[in-house]
Amino acid sequence: MGNAVVAAPRSLEAALAKVAGLIDSRPEQALAQAETILARAPGLPPAELLAGQALRRLGKPQAAQRRLSALARNQARVPPAVWWELAQAASEAGDGRQAISALETLTGQWPGVAGGWFLLAREYRNAGRAEDGWRADLSGVHASSRDPDLVKAAMAMNAGRLDEGEAVLAAELRQTPDNPAAIRLLAEIHWRRGDMSEALALVERAVTLAPGYDLARDFLIRLLLQANRLPEALAHAEVLAASPVKNPGYDLMRASVLVRLGDQDAARTVYDRLLAEQPDQPQVWQNLGHVLKTLGRQADAIHAYREAVTRQPTMGEAWWSLANLKTVKLGDDDVAAMESALQVLAAGGEDRAEDVFHLHFSLGKALEDARDHEASFRHYDRGNRLRRAQIVHDADGFSAEAAAAADLFTAGYLAARGAGGCPAPDPIFIVGLPRAGSTLIEQILASHSQVEGTMELAEMMMIAGRLQSRVDEGAFPDFRAMVDALTPADRLRLGEEYLDRTRVHRKSARPLFIDKMPNNWQHVGLIKLILPNAKIIDARRHPMSCCFSAWKQHFARGQTFSYDLTDIGRYYRDYVMLMAAFDRGAPGAVHRVFYEAMVSDTERQVRALLAHVGLPFEQACLEFYNNDRAVRTASSEQVRQPIFTDGLDQWRHYEAWLGPLADALGPVLDHYPEAPPVK
Questions:
Q1: How do strand 535-540 and strand 512-515 relate by DSSP bridges?
Q2: Can you tell me the distance from the alpha carbon of 427 to that of 77, in angstroms, rounded to the nearest whole number?
Q3: How confident is the model over 278-287, as pLDDT tens digits?
Q4: Rg of the Cα trace of the chain?
Q5: Which of 14, 342, 490, 660 has the smallest number of Cβ neighbours within 10 A?
Q6: What domain range includes position 103?
Q7: Distance set, CA 622 to CA 349, 445, 540 (Å)
Q8: Could you give the CA distance from residue 644 to residue 437 in angstroms, rounded to a whole number?
Q9: 455-476: per-residue pLDDT in tens?
Q10: Model's pTM, two decimal places?
Q11: Do the beta carbons of residue 250 and residue 241 sit within 8 Å?
Q12: Is residue 361 within 8 Å of residue 378, measured between CB atoms?
């Protein structure tokens, strides 16, 4: 806060201004000059204030407090700067009671002084008044929202003028370095630039300065989720859910973190409580359905999804969630309701593209079940086109990256790298394309007494992405140079990092665990370098069957290649090419399971699978459908039943429209189940 401007004789104005200019740089000289002024004009309020300010900056808060207290008592109308300085002096002197009194007066009379609220919040917490502190922080945030500089910075940021917004905030923080609202805004600017580490550091600082800053904590949780720092995200979500300002969104945030951590039962408890308090919440019904599906409570999941679409018939994701229960068939009434919902959305004029494409995917599934394959294809095609328009997928760039990895990890190269990496045998990676049977393999392995099933884990992809970013940022000229630079110690550290980061998903003492992220086929060479004793299982399915099944499946995230028949055909071809190259570079490192063989000769395939992992046969692996573990993928209901063959040739009903897929697959289709010969 600035100094008070109180009427003073004109002859003293220049002297007072000179003292004010010395307060921060030369407080001892400022005090001496203030005393000189007071000798000529005893009790002059501006000089008394300057003297108090100088004493506080000289590390004499008790003396400053006495002087400022007297100044406040002796004035009929105390300016805000006096209360501000008195509060800070009292705080530094350890007199929380007077600090609170001064700040309550300040914020009561001048509620737009954000810094007063934030300091009051800290004093309240020091006095054990946690809820009052929380509310004071929220009042500080509200006051900051009216700060013209912060408004200007926010407007620049939202318009994409990030440099301009940063410059405004930098100037603000030079004046008030501990301004939580400015720090949070700066964090968002860094996040929008893609600088996650700096964004996290800044928003963590904002929350430390103002623990009751709920919007900053909400942003922090979202960043922690993006960084896959799940235990930290949960800790902050627990704090946020306890906010005195009740917001159901905070409970939903906590539940979403619990789901990411695999604690479906705890998430279900949150949803049940929210619905008991207020049943008319379609989003909560939908989220509950997701949890119930994962827990294997199919009938309850169906009920929850039905409740969601009853309350909001245009809720596309809830319709798709019903359709995506592969053992559920939507009837004529459902088709009519979804077609009506599309008409409502078309007439509404709102941007509801996500609801629209979900409804097209859902209608595609319903009409497929009704055997109206031409109409079904039209809806699948429309849903995919809408979704493809929203995402970025560089098929040429991806093919180049896959080819570079295939060229790098040759037998000679791997041998030359020598020993290194983390020797732990714990992970079993199941890789391949989505809808290739990986969930079935996971369920079989997770039914063994020595293996824990987790979920599709992002940790290996995050490690690989971080390494690739060093190439993108220019630290290395290409992928090969980056991998060449990894020392044995680096490889050990990366392998240990993977195990450390995935430990949160391991809930039992079983020695082995499964990472079922299918996209990890892109990183089999890196896995071999940093976790040389990990097992890799390649789940493979007929290319037309696999690609068509993935194309008609809307994935929540990550599978950007799956919304175009040509893109997905190219992706499958890249996958086969890289895995064939890795087979040549590391013979026997990958065990391949063909879905058709698993279906037709299950016991032999299961025994071979267990032998590759180094485990004895257990009958429970053949009775995998009795395993009640949580399963989050699209095949969650299918793996709770014995193996069936219904899905093997579904693509043939659509063969007339799948020419672009067959063309993109090329020789991979012709040579299946073998890989095309190397030219």
A1: unpaired
A2: 71
A3: 999 999 999 9
A4: 32
A5: 14
A6: 10-110
A7: 53, 10, 19
A8: 12
A9: 899 999 999 999 998 898 899 9
A10: 0.81
A11: yes
A12: no
